[in-house]
Amino acid sequence: MKALVVGNGGREHAIAWTLLQSPNVKQVFCTPGNGGTATMTNCQNLPVAVDNFAEIARVVTENHISLVVVGPEVPLSLGIVDYLRQHNIAVFGPTKEGAQIESSKSWAKEIMNQANVPTAKSKTFTAAAAAKDYIRAEGAPIVVKADGLAAGKGVIVATTIDEAIAAVEELLGKDSGKLVIEEFLTGSEVSVLAVTDGKTIRPLSPAQDHKRIGEGDTGKNTGGMGAYSPVPLITAELMQRIEQEILQPTLEALNKKNIDYRGVLYAGLMITPAGDPKVIEFNCRFGDPETQVVLPLLDTPLEQILLACVAQKLEQQPSFKWKAGSAVCVVIASGGYPDAYEKGKAIAGTQAATQKGAIVFHAGTKLQKKQIVTDGGRVLGITAFGDNFAQAIAFAYDAVKSIQFEGMYYRRDIGHRYKQ
Ligand code: AMP
Ligand code: GLY
User: Fold this and answer.
1) Is the shortest distance between the CB of 103 and ligand 2 below 6 Å?
2) pLDDT, position 175
3) What is the CATH number of the domain that holds 136?
4) Dist CA 271 CA 234 (whole Å)
C-alpha cells in the first residue's frame, strides 16, 4: 500500500519512517515533508500546504494512496478529515468537531466535567473583570490559558496574583476572547497517546517530554526538547486507571455528542504526589517529540493499527506488541530557539549518527541543492534504543556528538527524570 503523511515535523518523519518499516507499505508521500522525508528511501515529498485540502485529495487519487495520516492540529481543527472523508478517502484523525478537544480548552473542560474525568478545577471567562476577581479569590499559583490554539504560547503558569492578572490582559487580547483559569497542579507530567476508532480506545507506550529550553527544566517553554519511553512511573496498574478513569469516559462523552473520533487522543497528564492521574490537557494528534520515541518502540505494523481505526475495527486487533528496552530522543535546536533563530545552516554528520545505530528524525530541515540545511527551531531528533535508560541515553548522546551545524543547541539532561 501507499500512504500519505500530512505535515513537516519530526513527528511526521517518525510516522513516515515507522510506516515504511512494514513490508506492506511500499511508498510514503509527505505533504509537504522536510529534508528527512525528502531523502528517506521509498519516501517522497509533494509541495502541498497542510491546509490545501483540495490539492491533498487530488494527489491522493492521482497516486492511488490508500491511507492519509494527519500530523498537526491545525489542519485537523480546520476540518481536513471532514473534507477527505467526504471524498471517500481513508484518513486517520478526528473531524473538526472532535479536534475541539485540543482547539478549545473550554470545550475540552466541558467534556471532562461531563465525563467525570479527573482534572484541575477550572472556570471559563469571556470578561477580564470577572477573570481578575476569580484570580484574587483563588490566589496564586494559578494557571491562565487562552481558549484556542496558540502554538504552545497560550498557557501562563502564574506564580503571583499580579502575574496572573497580567496574563489575563495578554491572553484575552490575543484569542477568541475566552480564557480558562485553572488550579495549579503539581507532580510529574506524562504523555499518554491513545489510538481510537471511536468505539475502542487503546493506549500506546507512555512517554515523558522535556518542555523547557534549559537543563534542569528551566527557562522558556518549547515544543519539546526531548522525550523518553516507556515511563517507569506508569505501572500496569496506573495505566489501567488511566484507561478506566480518563480514556474510556472521555471517548464515551465524545460519543454522547455524536462525535465519530478516529485518531489519536493524547492525554497530557499530571501524576500527583498522591499517585493519581489528572488531565492537564488533551491533544487531538500524535505528540512531538513523544512520537519519535513511541513509534520506534512499536513492533506491530503501524498501518495495521491506523487502518483498523479508520475501519472501526480496532477491537479485532491483537494487543499491540512493543520492543523490549527503552528509547530516548534528544532534540537538537537552532541557537536562539524558542526566540529568534537563523535558518539555512548546513547540517553535517547525520550519516555518522545513523551508523552508530541512532535514528535521525528531521524536523526543521530542508533539502537545498543536495545539502540538508536548517529550516526551523527544532531541527533534528536523535532517537536511540537501549536495554535500559542509562544505555539509551548514552547511545543517543554519542550519536548527537556526530552532528554539526552552526549554533546548534541541545539539552544534556534528556531522560534524567526516568528514575522518579
Ligand atoms: P499546555 O499548552 O496546555 O500543554 O500547557 C503547557 C504547560 O503548562 C504544561 O505542559 C504544564 O507544564 C503547564 N501547565 C498547564 N496546566 C497546568 C496546571 N493546571 N498545573 C500546572 N501546570 C500546568
Ligand atoms: N510534546 C508536546 C506536544 O506535542 O504537544
Assistant:
1) no
2) 59
3) 3.30.1490.20
4) 9
Angle at 224 between CA 350 and CA 108, to 5 degrees: 140
CA distance 36 to 44: 10
d(CA 370, CA 392) in angstroms, rounded, equals 31
| 52: in domain | yes
Name residue 322's amino acid. Answer: W
Domain that holds residue 31: 2-93
Q: Within 10 A of 5 (CB to CB), how many other CB atoms are there?
A: 26
**What pTM did the predictor assign?**
0.97
Give residues with Cβ within 8 angstroms of 150, minimum separation 6. Answer: 174, 175
- Report residues whose beta carbon is within 6 angstroms of any ligand 1 atom: 120, 143, 152, 155, 157, 182-185, 189, 211, 268, 280-281
> Which segments of the chain have a pLDDT < 70?
174-176, 419-420
Q: If you take atom 11 of ligand 1, which residue's CA is the nearest one?
A: 280
Calculate the alpha carbon distances from 165 to 87, 95, 280, 299, 348 in Å.
47, 35, 21, 48, 46
Identify the residue whose C-alpha is closest to ligand 1 atom 4.
281
**For the residues of 22-61, what is the DSSP string, one character each?**
STT--EEEEEE--HHHHHSTTEEE----TT-HHHHHHHHH
* 236 and 220 belong to one structural domain: yes
Tell me the per-residue pLDDT of 299-344, one tens digit each, with 9 for 90 and over: 999 999 999 999 999 999 999 999 999 999 999 999 999 999 999 9
User: Across the strands, what pairs with 181?
Assistant: 123, 144
Peptide bond before residue 32 is cis, with ω within 30 degrees of 0:
yes
- Cα separation, 104 vs 179, in Å, equals 10
Whether residues 150 and 199 share a domain: the answer is: no
Task: Find the 55 Cα to ligand 2 centroid distance in Å.
Answer: 27
* Beta-carbon-side half-sphere exposure of residue 136 (alpha carbons within 13 Å): 6
CA angle at 177 for the pair 73 and 183, rounded to the nearest 5°:
75
